[in-house]
Design a protein that fits this description.
The chain has 1002 residues and is of the alpha+beta class. It is built from 42 helices and 25 strands. The strands form six sheets. Strands 15, 16, 17, 18, 19, 20, 23 and 24 form an eight-stranded mixed beta sheet that branches. The chain has a six-stranded mixed beta sheet with strand order 6-7-8-3-9-10, sandwiched between helices. Helix 28 packs across helix 31 and helix 29 packs across helix 30. It is elongated and about 140 Å long. The relative contact order is 0.11. About 3% of the residues have low confidence.
Amino acid sequence: MLELKGIKKDYLTGENTVHALKGIDLRFRRNEFVSILGPSGCGKTTMLNIIGGLDQYTEGDLIINGRSTKDFKDRDWDTYRNHSIGFVFQSYNLIPHQTVLQNVELALTLSGVSKAERRKRAKKALEDVGLGNQLSKKPSEMSGGQMQRVAIARALVNNPDIILADEPTGALDTETSIQVMEILKEISKDRLIIMVTHNPELAEQYSSRIIRVLDGKLTDDSKPMTEEEYQQELQADRADNENGKKLKKPSMSFGTSFSLSLKNLFTKKGRTMLTSFAGSIGIIGIALVLSISQGFNTYINVIQEETLSSYPLTIQKTNTDLSALMQTFMGSATSDSTHDKDAVYKKSAIYDMMDALNNMETSENDLKSFKSYIESEREDSDSDLHKAVNGVQYAYDLDLLIYTKNVDGTIIHSDTEELMQEMVLEHMGIDMQAMTNASNSMFGEQATAMMGMGGSSMNLWQELLPGENGNPINDLLKKQYDVVYGSWPNSYDEIMLVLDENNELDDMTLYALGLEPKEDVDNIMEAAVNGKELQKDNKNWSYADICDMDFRTILNADCYRYDENIRLYTDLRDTDAGLQYLYDNGLKLKVTGIIRPNEDTTAPMLTGSIVYTSDLTKYLIDHSKDSDAIAAQKESKDTDIFTGLPFKDSSGSTTDAEKQTAFLEYVNGLDDSGKAQMYIQMMSIPTEEQLNESVQQSMQGMSRSDMEAAMLQGMTQQMSMSESDVQSYLESMSDDEITDTFTQMMQQQVKAQYAQQVQQKMAAMQPEELLKALNQLLPTLTAEQCANYYDELMQFSDSTYEDNLKALGDIDLDDPASINLYAATFEDKDVIEDAIADYNEGKDEMSQIQYTDYVGLMMSSVTKIINTITYVLIAFVAISLIVSSIMIGVITLISVQERTKEIGILRAIGASKRDVSSMFNAETIIIGFTSGLLGVLVTYLLCIPINLLVHHLTNINNLRAILPIPAAIILIAISVLLTLIAGFIPSKSAAKKDPVVALRSE
C-alpha cells in the first residue's frame, strides 16, 4: 500500500519560497487506476515525482508497504525505483542510441538479472504491447505511439508494484491515445497505476479513481480508501514484510556502462577520433622514449610478473637460503682495490662464490605451528590472509608408490623420473640419481628444481590443489582446465589424466603409463645416443581406453615384511613374486576423466600428467599408522629394522657413557665369530700413548731435509705428480707445516704397522681363545676407551631413524614438509608475505618462518642509469599527456551536458549516482584506451624509420627501437588512468544532477 501523510514540497527560487504541495494526504490501493487531474502548475507532476522517489518531500511522510521513508538513503530510493516503480513519460524518454530491446532490458540489467533471463523478459514485455517484431529498431525509427508502448514495456519489465504515468497520451493522437490507455487499463488489474493527465474524458473513461489537485492541495477524491480497506491493506503489508525477501540493490555493471558510453561515442565519430588523436600525442612521446631506453628492462619486469604468477609461495620445512649465492652468480666479480688503469689487475670472483657457498644458511621451519596459524586465519573471513589466499596445498614426504602393467604385461613403477634415470644409466652410463641427490643435499629440493636439476617437468603424478570447505578441486583448476572426457575426481581412489593443449603426451609419460612397450623406448634412446634418424609413428588411444587403464597404489609400509630367519624386515618389491603380491593387493585407482588446458589459460598450474586429490594422500597416511613395520621401528629407535645396524648419532651430542652403553650392546649382539673378529679389531688399535711414543721415536733426530725426503716419495705416489713438482710444493711450506704434515703421515704408518703386527700375532689363536679374551677385556674398559672403539669400529646404518619412518610412510598430517600458498594477484602475494611477517613478529629466531623467493631473486636485475634517464625523459614528455587529459576532461563535461536526459532516465529506472558516475568513467576509459592504442600503433609505425635511421648512422644492427607488448599495455593503461582522472570531476557532476531537472532537459 502507498500512503502520503501531510506531504509538503517547497522550492527556493532566489529569495522566494514556492509551496508546490501543501499537505497532501492520500492512500492508494494495491490494484487501481488512479488519475490525477488539475491545471498546469498545481503540483500534479511534483506529487508524481515524490511518489516515484525522483524528488524528496520537504515535510510529511511517504509510507511504502507500511514502511516510512523518512530515513531512506539514496540507495534505498534507487532500490525502490528499480523494483517497485515503473515510469511512463509524456515524451517517452527513450535512450536514442539504444535499440528498443536494449531500452527495455536496461532496468533488468540494474536488477542484476542474467543476460538470457533479461532478454527473455524484455521480449515478452514488448510482445505484450504489440512490438515483438520491432526489437532491433532505434527510437528514431518508430512512431510516437510505438515509442510510448516501448516506454510502457520498459515500465512493466521489472514487474513493479506501481506504474507512474505522466501525461502518457499528451504527445499522441486520439487513436493512439486510446490504444495506450487500453494497455494501461489492462495493467491496472494487478497493480497500482497513477496517471497525471489534463484529459478528463480519458480519466473518466478508463480510471477507477479520479483525484483533483489545485494549488498544491487535494480538492476532490472520487473513491477514497475506507477505514476497513485501510486496515486490510495494513494487514497485507505486514504479511508481505514478514514473508518477503530483501530486495537486491540495483547496480549497473561495467559492461552496461561501457555499452552505453560506446554507443554514445559512435554517434559522434569525428569528435571522438580527434579527441583520441590529441590524447595519443603524449603517449607517442613516452612510447618512443621507452622503445629506445627502457624496452628491455620493461620486458624483463613483465616476464618476472608472469613467472611469479605461475608459482605459489612455497615454505619448506628445511629452508636453505640461497639468496646470497644466487645474487653472486647473477652478479659479476667485484673490484676490491683502487689502482691506476696502466696494467691488468685481478678482482675477486672465486672467493665471493665459494664464500657464499660456505655461508649458506639452513634453517628448520616449524610448519606444524604455521599450518595451524594458516588454518585459523583462513577460517576468519575478515582476516587479510583469508582474502589474499586463493588456495593452500600441504605437501608431505610421502613416496607415492603407484604401479601399472605395461603392454608387455610387466609390472612397472609408474614414475617418469625413476624410469628416465634407469634409461639414461642403461644407454648412456650417466647416474642422474646420484647427481640429483648431490644437488638436493647441497642446495635443497626446491632450489634444485629451480636450477633445473630434477625439475617438476619430470613428475608424472601430481596432487590437485584442494578447494574450499572440503571440496577436492580448487575452482582455479576448473577455470584453467576443460574436462574433455569423464568428470573431475570426487573420491580418494579417483584420478585424472592431463593432456597438453594439443591433446598429446610425451613418449616417456606414455611409457610410465604402460602404454608404450620398453622395446620402443629402447629404440628411441639408441637412436638419440647414436645420432640416428627416428621414424615417427602416429599412435593414438581413445578416451575410453585411457579411462580403462589399471593403476594400483601400495602403502609404503606394506612393502616390508618381517623375515623370521634373519629377524629383519625385507622389501617385497625386491622379488617378482613379492611385487606381484603387492600389486594384486594394492588399492585400485580409477581414471574418471581427462582434462586439457582451456584456450584462455596462458600459464597452466599442473605439470604432472596424472593428478589425484589430497584425499588420496590423507588415505595413504592414515592407513599406514597401523603398520607392524612402523610399530617395530618406533619400538627400536636406535636400530635399523632393515639392516639390524644401529643408527649413528649425527648431532655430536652423544656422551662417552652413552657411547659405552651402545658399544657394549653392539658387541653383545654379535655372534661368536663376530665377537672374535671384534676382539682382533680392538687390539689392532694402539692407545694414544703407544701412538705418540712410536711417532716420537720414529721422528727423533730427523731434520727438515730428512722429513722432506721421506715425504717426497710418499706424496709422489699418492698424488701422481712428478718429483720436481712435489719438491717445489714442499719447499714452499713452513717448518711447522712440514712437521705437522709429516707427523700425520707417521701416525697413519704407525697405526697400519701396529694393526699388522697384532693381526699376525693373533692369527694363531683359536676363536674360543679370542672370545674368552674379549669377555675378560670388556669389564675392564673405561667409558673413554669404549667411546673410542664406538667411533673407530662400530658399523652403522646408512639410514637414519627419521628416514626409515619416512620410507615406511609414517607421516603426521599436521606437520607437512612444505606449504604452498597460492595468490590470485601480486598484491595478494604481498599480503601473504606481510602475514608471514606478522606471524614471525615477537617470536625468537628459531621459531620464525624462513623462506626464499627464488623467482623474485632471479628476475630482480635492473639498470639504474638507464632507468634514471628514462624517468627524466618521460617526465618531460608526460606534460603533453597531462594537457591532453585535461582536454579530454573538458570533452567529457560537454558529453555530460549532452546526455543530461539520459542521466534522468537512468535515475528514474533505479540507477544510483555511482552508476551514473561509472557510465561517464566508462566513456573516459574508452577515449583513454583509444588514445593509448592509437599512440602505441603510431609508435610501432615510427619505429620502422627510426630503426632504419639508427642503423644507417651507427652501423649497429643490434641497436633498435622496439616497444615491447607489455610496455605498450602499460602505456595504454596509463592513458586510460589519466583520462579517467581527468573525467572524475565531470562524472561526479553528472552523478549529482537532479533527476527531475535532468528529465526536463532536451
